[in-house]
Design a protein that fits this description.
There is one protein chain. By secondary structure, the chain is an alpha/beta fold. Helices cover about 20% and strands about 25% of the residues. The chain has two domains: about 5-110, no CATH class; about 115-245, no CATH class. A hairpin with an 8-residue loop joins β6 (about 95) and β7.
C-alpha cells in the first residue's frame, strides 16, 4: 500500500465458514445491491449497499481472509486473538489496515482503530519533541476541529485559535534547567517535514508555537464507520497546538 493511498481505509474480516462468498476480494464500486436478502446475509454486500446509498469513497477495499495462511502476513494491532466468522450466522469482526505503508501488516480491530491511531500519533509527537531539541518547556494540546473538512497531514495555519471546550492536554512538561532528552524512535510515521524543520531551527532562548491538523477518519464517513463497528469519538479532524520554549 503506497503512501499516496494513506487517506483510504482497507477493511478486512476473517471468514472461515464453508458458506462464505468466494469472490470477496473486490473493490467497493458504490453501486446499489439489487437483492435485499443478499445484503442482509453478506457483510461485504452490506458495505456495498451502504456505499451506493451514502458515498463512493467510504473505504478503499473490503477484503475477506479465508484461511490461516492468508492471516500469516498480518498481526493484530492490539495483540488479541483473531476473531473469525465460522458459521453463517456468526457476527463479523472488522479489522482496519494501518494507514501507513510502513505498518501495512498491522490490522486494527475496527472498534479501536481511530483511538489506536490517535494515540500512536500523539506518542510520536511527544517523543519527537522530547528527543530533538533542548527544551525547557513543551506543551502539546489537542482539540476536535469543530469546523471539519480539513485534510489529513501537517499544515501550518494561523496561531490563535481561541479557547475551545474540547481542548485537552497531550503533554505539559517543564524544567528551568532544561528537560532531559529522551531516546528518539528509530522511525517516525507521522512527523512531517514542516515540523521537523521548525524544531531543528530552535536555539537557546527561542520559542515556537506550531499548529497543525490531522484527520483520523481518513476519508471514511460516519455511516460507514458505524457499519463496521468503529467508534467515532476520534474518527474526525483534530487540531494540535505545540509550544516549545528553549
Amino acid at each position: 500500500m503506497s503512501e499516496s493511498a494513506k487517506n483510504k481505509l482497507e477493511v478486512y474480516y476473517i471468514d472461515f465458514s464453508e458458506s462464505g462468498e468466494k469472490t470477496e476480494r473486490k473493490r467497493i464500486d458504490g453501486k446499489k445491491i439489487a437483492h435485499a436478502a443478499n445484503v442482509a446475509l453478506n457483510p461485504v454486500a452490506t458495505a456495498r449497499f451502504i456505499g451506493g446509498l451514502v458515498s463512493k469513497s467510504l473505504a478503499d477495499e473490503i477484503r475477506v481472509l479465508r484461511s490461516e495462511d492468508e492471516l500469516l502476513p498480518f498481526e493484530n494491532g492490539q495483540g488479541n486473538q483473531w476473531i473469525a466468522r465460522r458459521e453463517p450466522g456468526d457476527a463479523v469482526q472488522y479489522y482496519v489496515r494501518h494507514p501507513k505503508a510502513a505498518k501495512s501488516g498491522v490490522l486494527i480491530e475496527s472498534g479501536n482503530f481511530s483511538k489506536y491511531v490517535y494515540d500512536e500519533y500523539c506518542d510520536e509527537l511527544i517523543n519527537f519533541c522530547r528527543s530533538h531539541c533542548d527544551a525547557k518547556r513543551i506543551v502539546i494540546s489537542s482539540m476536535k476541529n469543530m469546523a471539519g473538512g480539513l485534510d489529513g497531514g501537517f499544515k501550518k495555519i494561523k496561531v490563535g485559535i481561541g479557547a475551545r471546550s474540547e481542548a485537552s492536554e497531550v503533554l505539559n512538561v517543564c524544567s528551568p534547567n532544561g528537560l532531559r532528552r529522551v531516546a528518539p524512535y528509530g522511525k517516525y510515521l507521522w512527523i512531517e517535514p514542516q515540523l521537523r524543520t521548525a524544531i531543528a531551527g530552535l536555539k537557546k532562548g527561542g520559542k515556537i508555537t506550531y499548529t497543525l491538523t490531522q484527520d483520523f477518519s481518513f476519508g471514511a464517513n460516519a455511516s460507514f464507520l458505524k457499519m463496521i463497528g468503529a467508534k467515532t469519538d476520534f474518527s474526525r479532524s483534530f487540531i494540535f497546538n505545540i509550544v516549545i520554549e528553549c
